[in-house]
């Protein structure tokens, strides 16, 4: 999420990365991420728009080598 905020948007991250607000909604559009969403992330995603099975909360994705070469799309309220 820090990468997203630093480079693209300043208007996300209302909950400061606690997985509660859903403003950091992203979709994985290329590649696969082998970690799973926990119950809290799933619960928050169920409250935001345009969610599908590729949706994640950026703040819940750890920045490490596992996300090399993955492509995410930032989802805003107006798509
Ligand atoms: S910053 Fe709030 S859910 Fe990610």
UniProtKB/TrEMBL annotation:
GO biological process, one term: P450-containing electron transport chain
Annotated protein name in UniProt: 2Fe-2S ferredoxin-type domain-containing protein
Organism lineage string: Bacteria, Pseudomonadati, Bacteroidota, Flavobacteriia, Flavobacteriales
Keyword Amino-acid biosynthesis attached: no
Requisite cofactors: [2Fe-2S] cluster
Family note: Belongs to the adrenodoxin/putidaredoxin family.
2Fe-2S ferredoxin-type domain sequence ranges: 14-62
Lipid biosynthesis found in the keyword field: no
């Amino acid at each position: 999420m820090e990468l997203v905020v630093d480079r693209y948007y300043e208007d996300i991250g209302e909950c400061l990365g606690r997985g509660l607000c859903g403003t950091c909604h992203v979709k994985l559009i290329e590649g696969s991420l082998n970690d799973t969403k926990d119950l809290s992330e799933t619960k928050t995603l169920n409250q935001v728009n345009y969610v599908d099975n590729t949706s994640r909360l950026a703040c819940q994705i750890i920045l490490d080598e596992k996300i090399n070469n993955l492509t995410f799309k930032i989802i805003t309220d107006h798509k």
